[in-house]
Write a structure and sequence with these properties.
Layout lengths: L10 H9 L3 H23 L2 H18 L9 H19 L31 H5 L2 H14 L2 H12 L4 H8 L3 H21 L1
Helix pairs in contact: 1-2, 2-3, 2-4, 2-7, 3-4, 4-8, 6-9, 7-9
Length: about 200
């Protein structure tokens, strides 16, 4: 079966097609990544119309700067980084930016960002009394209320299914910083769900 060079072939071939301005390559890129980029932006910003503008602006910028893509990360990570950076700029404009800091909490979590010891509270009576759908609704609601620095790592890891390296590439952070952010995000979400 012959491919169009967009679905088949290496990422290098796809990037070359994008740099050459091949319409099929851009169409495939937008159809493949566009919906998830928009969902990510909506979750970061909490506003669909602003998220649409952010994604559109990001994609237009990528179209004009694709020649600068050097392959140090995947095109997927590059797209998310562009949307992430524009969303952060918008959040700063709204004066909602919160910095979570960079100090290590090595005693609490492992290399993958998971708790070393079980977190108390998840196995109590309250979660057992809730049905899964209601609990999921509460988790989603509380996740939307988290500061963006917490929300963004959870969105990329748990919702988008990014690997640790893809998240580091998308957010332009170190693996150590990622572990800290994931740890803090999970702790904040847990506390919000238990208290909320």
């Amino acid at each position: 079966m012959q491919g169009d060079g967009v679905h088949q072939g290496s990422e290098t071939d796809r990037v070359d097609a994008l740099k050459a301005g091949t319409a099929a390559a851009w169409t495939q890129l937008l159809s493949h990544h566009g919906p998830s980029l928009l969902a990510y932006a909506i979750r970061m910003l909490g506003d669909r119309s602003t998220a649409e503008e952010i994604v559109q602006d990001s994609l237009v910028n990528i179209y004009h700067t694709i020649d600068r893509f050097d392959g140090r990360c995947s095109i997927k990570s590059w797209l998310y980084r562009a949307v992430h950076n524009n969303a952060i700029d918008e959040i700063r404009r709204r004066k909602r930016y919160v910095d979570v800091g960079h100090e290590a909490q090595e005693a609490y979590f492992d290399e993958a960002g998971r708790w070393i010891n079980d977190c108390p509270g998840w196995d109590g009576l309250a979660p057992k009394q809730m049905d899964e759908k209601r609990l999921l609704g509460i988790v989603r609601q509380q996740m939307d209320r988290l500061p963006h620095a917490h929300r963004e790592v959870l969105l990329l890891k748990e919702v988008e299914g990014f690997s640790g390296q893809e998240i580091c590439d998308a957010l332009d952070i170190s693996p150590g910083n990622l572990r800290i952010r994931i740890h803090r995000a999970r702790a904040a979400l847990r506390a919000a769900v238990v208290e909320g």
